[in-house]
Amino acid sequence: MRVLVCGATGCVGAAVASALRARGHQVVAGSRDAVDGPHSLRVDYMEPVAPAEWARRLGAQRIEGVVNCVGILIPDQGQSFERVHAQGPIELFRGAALAGVRRVLQVSALGVGSAAASLATPYLHSKLLADDALAALPLDAAVLRPSLVYGPRSQSARLFATLASLPVISLPGRGAQRVQPVHVFELAEAMVRLIEQREPIKGVHELAGPAALSYREMLAAYRRAQGLGDAVWLPLPMGLMKLAALAAEALPQKVFSRDTLRMLERGSVATANALPALLARAPSTLAHGLAVTPPTALVDLRVVISPPVAWGMRGALAFMWIYTALISAALPTQSGVLHLLARCGFEGRAGVVALIASCALNLALGTLTLLRPSPWLYAVQSGAVLGYGLTAAFNMPELTLDHCAPLVKNVPVLMAVLLLWLAHPSRAAARASALRDPRPGVAASHGVWSAGMQRSPGS
C-alpha cells in the first residue's frame, strides 16, 4: 500500500514510516519542510488547504492510506492547536474522503473523550474536534489514543530522562499520578497491523503499556535505565508546580506547560487497552522498552568514580567534618568559633547552644560519610556547606576577601560532595543489568522492535 505519513520526522511518524517500509509498503513522508516529490509531500497544517486541493494532491501521489501523526504539546506564534490539531487535519481528512483513500489513521491522545472532559485543556479539545470530524466522514478510519509515548525522538521522554537524572527529583504533589507508557515501536507496530487489516477498522482504540505506574515509579524506571543510583525525592505542592509550569512556558522548550501539567494530573491510563489484541501479545514493560532504546537526557549527569578514589574523597570529607567538630569543641576560643558565632548573632548561652548543635551536626556528617553514605546525607552535606559558607560570608566578609580565601575553598568541597552524590550507587544496582523482559512473547518480538531501528531502502 502507498501510505502518506504526516509528521514523518517526529517520534511517532518516523517509527511508523520505518515500520511500514520494513513491511514492504511505499511511504510518502509528509512534513512541513518536505518538497513534493515521489516519496515526500509538503504537509503544513498552518497553511489552509481546501479539501478539493488535498484530494488532487493525494490522487496525484496515488495515496491509498493516510496516517496523521502531527502534534504539538505547546503552541507558539508559528503553530496553534486550532490549526495543527483540528482545522488542518480536518481539511486533509475531507480531501481523503473525496479522493477515495482506502484507510486513515488519526493519532490522538489518551484522555480525549467527551466534550466536557476534553474542554479541560486546549490540547485535548483540539484533538477531539479532529477525532469527531474524522468519525463523521465516509472513511474506513481509526482514531488511536495512546498513553505517554516514549522511545527515540520523544521530547517528553527526554524531559522525563532529564528530570529522573537529577540528584533531587521534584514531584507534583506526591507523584501518585497514574500513567501507562507505551513504546513508540510497539505503537507503530499496532498501527501497521491496522493499516494491513482486512476487516474494517473504523472506531477508537486506546493504546497503552501493560500496567499503570505512578509518575514517581515511571521516573524511577528512567533513572535505573540510565544506571543512576538512588535519588532524593522532593514532593512539591501543586501550586508551586503550576508556577514552575507558567515560568517554563517562557523558555525555549516544547513539553512542560500548565496544559501538560493538567493532563498529568488527570492521569493517562487506558480503560480498555487495545494494544495487546493488536500485537497478539503483551506489550513490553517500561523497563524492557528503556533497555531496548536507552533514554537520553538533555544533560548527562552520570558520574563513575573508582572505589579507591571514592573512599579517598569520602575519607577527606569525613576528616574535614570530624576535625571541625573536635577542634571547635576542644578549643572554642583558640579556634575562633565563638568569635564567628558572635559575629553571626549567637552570643552567650545562644552561642554555646549553636556551638553544640554545630559540633553535633559536623560529627554526625563525618561519621555517616564513612559508615552510611546516602543521597540524603549528601543533600544535607551540600546544605550545610552552603549554609555555613553563606552565613559566614554575610557576617564576616573578610573571610572571603582574605588572600587565603578560607570560605572560597567551600566551592571545591561542595563539588566533591556533589560528585560523590551523583556517583552514589543504587541499592538495586545489582539488578539493573537484568532489565530485559524474560517473557518469550516480548523478548522475541523482533517485528517493529528491529524494524523501528532501521531504515529500509528508499527511505
Descriptive tags:
alpha/beta, Rossmann fold, 51% helix, two-stranded parallel ribbon, 459 residues, seven-stranded parallel sheet, disordered C terminus, 13 strands, 2 domains
Cα gyration radius (Å): 28 Å
Give the integer mean of the pLDDT values. Answer: 88
Largest sheet: 7 strands, parallel
Report how far apart the termini are: 15 Å
- What is the strand tally? 13
CATH topology of the largest domain: Rossmann fold
The CATH architecture of the largest domain would be 3-Layer(aba) Sandwich
CATH superfamily membership of the largest domain = NAD(P)-binding Rossmann-like Domain
Shape summary:
elongated
Strands of the largest sheet, in order across it?
3-2-1-4-5-6-11
Strand content: 5-15%
CATH class term of the largest domain? Alpha Beta
Helix/sheet category: alpha/beta
Q: What's the oligomerization state?
A: single chain
Instruction: Give the number of helices.
Output: 21
Q: What's the helical proportion of residues?
A: 40-55%
Number of structural domains: 2
Could you explain how this protein is built, in words?
This protein has 459 residues and is α/β, with parallel strands linked by helices. The protein has 2 domains: 2-153 and 179-212 and 268-293, NAD(P)-binding Rossmann-like Domain (Rossmann fold), CATH 3.40.50; 307-423, no CATH class. It is built from 21 helices and 13 strands. It has helices at 11-22, 51-60, 81-99, 115-118, 122-135, 155-165, 184-196, 215-225, 238-248, 258-266, 275-279, 286-292, 307-330, 337-343, 348-371, 375-395, 398-401, 410-423, 429-432, 440-443, 448-451, and strands at residues 2-6, 26-31, 40-42, 65-68, 103-107, 141-146, 149-150, 168-172, 178-179, 182-183, 203-207, 213-214, 232-236. Helix 8 packs parallel to helix 12 (286-292). The longest helix has 24 residues, at 307-330. The protein is elongated and about 90 Å long. The model is unreliable at 429-448 and 450-459 (pLDDT under 50).
